[in-house]
Write a structure and sequence with these properties.
Two copies of one chain form a homodimer.
Chain A: H1 11-34, H2 41-47, H3 52-58, H4 62-66, H5 68-83, H6 90-101, H7 104-117, H8 121-145, H9 151-178, H10 184-203, H11 209-215
The structure holds a DNA duplex.
DNA sequence: TGCAAACTTGCATGCCGTGCAATTTTCTAG
DNA sequence: CTAGAAAATTGCACGGCATGCAAGTTTGCA
């Protein structure tokens, strides 16, 4: 829909993206080496060779910096979905997106984050916001393609798709936590599988859970 | 499942809940009269006749205080669902919950909040956290009833149900914003209807959006 | 009635997030 | 290549947040 500036590697832009990346890297490095509690705008800025004030010119908070990869990944997903032709249904499109989506450069930090999120809800909030923005974008995308006073349906649908993604990430992260063996490559394969499974749950009407619950009436 | 202290109106408990309520009321009153920007731990505490320090003994932030009703309402919903017999399927149960659920005392502030959330993302975050906690509880509830290595399915399902609820609230709030006429009673009826519709979308496999998108291939 | 436990309060501290003005870096035109 | 414009970085200051701690004050219980 929008052509994202195919060529503009002016010096200024390069410096800005470099600085931005440096801050994010510094934040993650410190997170891994010294833990979440140690994170300070001051310390991260210093590690990124920037002043504290400049840090805040780029990010409104430490959490925002840590969630940059997540934000990018989710925005990217919606963008890819937006590019796809309108003549395939959304769930199929979602599958396509998932397959193409997963950039290790963004997933690594995302995984790292998930390990800390359970213990520090502060961090979780900004990430929740990223998922929420994703849902909003998706809702608009759906409404734009089927605009007939079906706003509620569109919103529910969007929530389900994004919810499936979130569920997949959550489950994936939990499995990783219990079983931190696998190599990076395998991790990503696991995630892809989990994401595909989650979307399949949506496509199949609804999980076997329903029937099971019904059948399960006390013997 | 858990018996929530049927009788314990000791003086201390009463005082604490009174103080807690006073803080929440003070926060909402100031929100309506002077706007979000004016909210300060200091000012809210003063309005509730408590010291600033005591405010922080009850809530970790202004946002947490403002989200108390939301939190209560969602936790209440899950609790009601938990009480229901296992031999009805979850979507039917959800409908039941929705019908019984909606306590005006909690909904009023929730509606008020929704009007401010769009303009102040700070506030949205804590509310997102409340929804997320709701999803987690629901996931555990589902897993407990159908425990067979279907954690992912359970999580997806929970996300969908809660997502439908969130979608309903969002849509409802948006409609209210465009059209702030109705009386309080009507508002709640609208919400009930919207919630029921949202859940119906889930039950009906999936919204007509899918077929529509497929049929809609460029003529 | 008196003591222990629970609750409140003030104080102090470190960090956050932002407006502002000065400084440095990058771009552009001549 | 250079001078000035535009953009980015920096330091400073300020108000507010959130929490530990060490008093005070209220409530419960024997």
């Amino acid at each position: 829909m929008s052509s994202p500036d195919t060529s503009a590697p002016t010096r200024r832009e390069l410096n800005k993206t470099a600085t931005r990346a440096a801050i994010v890297d510094a934040a993650f490095h410190q997170l891994q080496t010294h833990g979440y509690e140690s994170l300070t705008a001051e310390s991260v800025a210093e590690a990124a060779n920037v002043s504290r004030r400049t840090f805040f010119n780029y990010f409104a908070s430490i959490e925002a910096a840590l969630n940059e990869p997540t934000k990018r990944l989710l925005e990217n997903a919606v963008a890819v979905l937006d590019e796809l032709d309108t003549d395939i249904d959304l769930l199929s499109a979602a599958v396509t997106v998932v397959k193409s989506l997963v950039d290790p450069k963004l997933l690594e930090p995302m995984a790292e984050l998930c390990l800390h999120i359970n213990t520090h809800s502060q961090m979780a909030r900004v990430q929740l916001e990223a998922w929420e923005n994703c849902t909003d974008s998706l809702t608009e995308l759906i409404i734009a393609r089927a605009p007939q006073g079906t706003e509620l349906a569109a919103s529910v649908f969007a929530h389900c798709i994004v919810g499936a993604g979130k569920a997949a990430f959550t489950t994936w992260a939990r499995e990783l936590e219990e079983n931190p063996d696998p190599t990076d490559g395998l991790r990503i394969d696991m995630l892809r599988t989990t994401l595909a499974d989650a979307i399949a749950q949506l496509r199949d009407g609804f999980p076997s859970l329903q029937q099971r619950a019904a059948h399960l009436r006390k013997a």
